[in-house]
Amino acid sequence: AVLPRDTSLRTKLTRSIELAIPLVSAAMDTVTEARLAIAIAHDVANALAEDVGTGDLTARLIPDGSPARGRVITREDAVLCGRDWFEGCLKALDPSAVVNWHYAEGQAMQADTLVCDVQAQARALLAAERPSLNFLQMMSAVATLTRTHVRAIEGVEIKRNDFLKRLIDIQYQRNDVDFHRGTFRVRGDVVEIFPAYEEERAL
What we know:
Layout: E1 8-10, E2 16-18, H1 30-51, E3 67-74, E4 78-79, H2 83-93, E5 98-101, E6 108-109, E7 113-121, H3 122-153, H4 160-169, E8 173-174, E9 183-187, E10 190-194
Parallel strand pairs: 8-9
Antiparallel strand pairs: 1-2, 3-7, 4-6, 5-7, 9-10
Helix pairs in contact: 1-2, 1-3, 2-3
């Protein structure tokens, strides 16, 4: 399922963010995907409103319409997470921006390798730099830590309540209704986890 392209959200920046993110997943239903897309748009709008406000003064020093290129390089081994938020920040300011990813969502990245190339208007690239990288760094850090914990406890017996507490400690949220990345739900003796680093697969 894909959220219709004409769905938009008005932000404090007096511009419309088009929810054109193809969140196709076998593990999520249409309603859940729509909620996630709306949540991403809200997160992006709030981040830009807080960081950019009515405009980026430094970016205004650059001539309007000037093209620019950028690269994101990871300095540590990590699990990539947050591509939709990263692109959302950039495309909210420049809908024509292009991001060429070198890693898939949830893929393990090697230190000192290229994560993505970006082509956009210079003003948009400068203004979106900090909020977009904040999302990518924070979410990738959580995904990396999560994968480390999952591998560490694989095959280990643990009491259920202790396990649930451990999930909460590493920033997972319990949600028995809206099951998406970064959440878990409990059904009787079964605990289902949707890892932050996975786009289509729940455990």
